[in-house]
Amino acid sequence: MTPWDRLSTLAETAQGQSILDLFTQEGRAAEFSARFGDMLFDYSKTQIDTKTRAALLDLAREAGVESRRAAMFSGEKINETEGRAVLHTALRAGPEARVLVDGVDVMPGVRKTRAAMARFAEDLRSGAFMGQGGAITDVVNIGIGGSDLGPVMAVLALAPYHDGPKVHFVSNVDGAHIHDTLQHLDPTTTLVIVASKTFTTIETMTNAETARKWMATQVTDTGAQFAALSSNTEATQEWGIAQNRVFGFEDWVGGRYSLWGPIGLSIMLAVGADNFDAFLQGAAEMDAHFCTVPLHDNVPVMLALVGIWHAQIQGHASRAVLPYDQRLLRLPAYLQQLEMESNGKRVSMDGADLARDSGPIVWGEPGTNGQHAFYQLIHQGTRTVPCEFLVAAKGHEPDLAHHHALLVANCLAQSEALMRGRSLDEARSSMAAKGLAGPELERQARHRVFPGNRPSTTLIYPQLTPRTLGQIIALYEHRVFVEGIILGINSYDQWGVELGKELATKLGPVLAGETGADDKDGSTRALIEYVQSNRS
Ligand SMILES: O=P(O)(O)OC[C@H]1O[C@](O)(CO)[C@@H](O)[C@@H]1O
Predict the structure, then answer these.
(1) Which numbered atom of ligand 1 lies nearest the CA of 144?
(2) Does residue 160 lie within any of the structural domains?
(3) Is the beta carbon of 326 within 6 A of some atom in ligand 1?
(4) What is the pLDDT of residue 264?
(5) How far is the CA of 146 from the centre of ligand 1 (A)?
(6) Alpha-carbon span 515 to 509, nearest angstrom
(7) DSSP reduced 3-state for 28
(8) In the chain, which residues have pLDDT < 50?
(9) Active site annotation includes 341
(10) Whose CA is closest to atom 8 on ligand 1?
(11) Catalytic (active site) residue 396
């Protein structure tokens, strides 16, 4: 019997297994949690028991998690469809590290770029680097996907550490985004960063061109107030950005894994090089944990196995990520790209159809806001949505500690409520206490039943510092990697984004009336006609 078969059988047995009853086993909370430093990952509020976990660990071993992990860290070209190594971990590696790609140590180059970024950041933050109108007050990062989501998420998350210029982000090609961002800024004291690995992404290049025109209205040497983050240094030069403000990286850094290097410049500008270093250090610590700790106690591995249990074995199509931290507002969006662009694939590495479901749909919002929006469905809908809670024991506002206490109480209450539920008898008693009786009591009580037994995990840490944020992001990166290995997926390509881009490029001239729409289907033709007759 393969581990997959064993897990299917275990899932059948688990049907109807009360999670709450599993806690009659003494020490379950400690036994079904994993620690990383002062961070705790609690997965005891799931139906996973000792046998299930053993089968999940066998699955990981048989899939070759340990050897694939070694292959990734040693610079093997594990992104086979693009013939590339996967070494975002090198961007955060410590001073002693040596990482070989094709026999060449890439670390001297990584360190050189990191030092150049730090020098530029310090110059800009101290006022040594200025705009035409004086010290830089605002930075606009223009990028999309991995060249935007990571930096936006991290800059928001690290608000208590901001002591640099104000950082803004423009990603959408919708002119509203750049318009609304630039309209309040002064071009003479603004730095524009064009963040694009390829430097060809249509949204980014269109926004960059618009920013250049805006800058030219008041600045004579516009190029002097631009920087570029890219692995296509030829294109950055052609675009007119001086070499000393181009921060390059190699093709072994995937877009959605790129915030640790030059793509993270906006984070460094906001919080300074020391805090950025702490962010990298946290991630490097998680890398060391991932590489050395046995699978059973390995937080990224266990997070991945819980994910596989819920998505591929129990068949739950989505998972909700629910940070009880307003500053992690964009974490769900960031994880949507990280997880869904990495593992949303229908063929395995060798091109065969995937034998099971691909990675799940990832969605979420910070608590407590989500509670007043979609938690209704999570508690009483007909579908089970495994929930992943994140919360810090302590906030950053000592005088608002009572807010934080309420926040934590809500987070803990939600996982408890999801597991415990409320029975019909309990609902009946509360309706009877309100004076209801007979059929009306019965009807009202049924609406107030919570089925419970809904699984969740909680990641809890002391405080959201730069170092902790680095740990959390690296944790999720490795989780995605492990899930991808188990599914046989190449988590590092993204062919699924190409078709839409190609068609959009062809539709441009059609919408402009330059070419016909004869090859289009009836629906698309009707939509084109609608736009053409309603835009003037
Ligand atoms: O950094 P670039 O090359 O502009 O790409 C942006 C994003 O586009 C994608 O290729 C997908 O559309 C992402 O993987 C990437 O993060």
Answers:
(1) 6
(2) yes
(3) no
(4) 98
(5) 6
(6) 6
(7) helix
(8) none
(9) yes
(10) 145
(11) no
